[in-house]
Amino acid sequence: MKLRILSLGAGVQSSALAMLIEQGKIPMVDAAIFADVGAEPREVIEWLDWLKTKISYPLFVVQDRNLKEDLINVTLGKYHKIKIPFFTLDEKGKKGMNRRQCTADYKIQPVTQKIRQLLGLAKGEKRKAGTEVELLMGISTDEVQRMKTNQIKYFNNVYPLIDMGWNRAKCISWFEENYNKTPPRSACTFCPFHSNEEWKRVKSNKEEWDKVVALEKSFHNNKETVSKTGMKDTMFLHRKCIPIDEIDFDEDKNKDQLDMFNNECEGMCGV
After folding, report:
1. For residues 260 and 265, what is the distance between their CA atoms, to the nearest angstrom?
2. DSSP 19-46
3. Which of 64, 114, 230, 237 is 20 to 30 A from 134, alpha carbon to alpha carbon?
């Protein structure tokens, strides 16, 4: 069995791919899959709802765990795994960073599970002979460092935008010309890899910003977090290692918080 699947992040590039497929400019897929981590900005979810009305092929929304709920449960002592790459500060003032596990656990794994389901494979069942999956990734020419070889041998990651020579700006202009719309940037509201400019965008939505600030504060001086995780260092969302609501994002432009997202992303997150 062979499948052709679009990995849909509902951001600029994968949205362009979705509509290029719909227009027949890129060969049709069997389905698109969106992994809902439970932490996307409201505008991304609204955009996803719009995409659903425009494409004719199946679009599956999958979720294994809710990242935001898991982080909250860490502070309540109900969960002991911190999956996002918080910046850390120890008692001696030394900075560090947590291991990043969010993309693998909340994006890649649920998408893989859904593909296996579409292939008719039960949990733990080995693939049948001749099984192949072509996985379309929304990565453009200005993000070539995010191109990855899939760790699953019968999955082949393909990059149509790279093949077409399209960058992010081209995706945006094409969308504006064809649909008079601009897709949003797709990333968790509290992602530590945000640039200062991205943090400013998050801050412009007071409801989402207040939740981000409250989430970070809930990790500070929290005995439940220490007791369950063993993490004694103080955790921050910004590399300055000061509370996020005390940072002037206009100061020195992006000197203190580079846009780490494109450099660090594992290829499945926020496209």
Report:
1. 8
2. HHHHTTSS---SEEEEE--S---HHHHH
3. 64
> Would you tell me how many other CB atoms lie within 10 Å of the CB of residue 72?
15
The token pair at 250 is 């206009």
Q: Residue 256's pLDDT is what?
A: 47
Residue 267: other Cβ atoms inside 10 A: 21
Per-residue model confidence as pLDDT tens digits over 21-76: 999 999 999 999 999 999 999 999 999 999 999 999 999 999 999 999 999 999 98
Sheet holding 234-236, edge to edge: 95-97, 87-89, 234-236
pTM: 0.90
Q: Which long-range contacts (CB under 8 A, 24 or more apart) does 100-104 make?
A: 100/264, 102/37, 102/67, 102/188, 102/269, 103/265, 103/266, 103/268, 103/269, 104/266
Please tell us whether the domain made up of 2-264 is placed in CATH 1.10.10.
Answer: no
Say if CB 216 and CB 237 are below 8 A apart: yes
Distance from C-alpha of 243 to C-alpha of 213, rounded to nearest angstrom: 8
- Burial of residue 104 (number of CB atoms within 10 Å: 0-12, 13-18, 19+): middle
Q: What are the boundaries of each domain within the chain? A: 2-264
DSSP type of residue 12: H
Q: Dihedral (C-alpha) 184, 70, 155, 3: value to the nearest 10 degrees?
A: -70
Cα–Cα nearest to 102, from 162, 150, 159, 36: 36
Predicted confidence (pLDDT) per residue in 9-32, tens digit: 999 999 999 999 999 999 999 999
Sheet of strand 31-35, all strands in order from the earlier edge strand to the far edge: 59-62, 31-35, 2-7, 132-137, 155-158
Taking alpha carbons only, the member of 2, 9, 4 closest to residue 265 is 9
Segment 257-260 long-range contacts (CB within 8 Å, at least 24 positions apart):
257/194, 257/195, 257/196, 257/199, 258/195, 259/193, 259/194, 259/195, 259/197, 259/198, 260/192, 260/193, 260/195
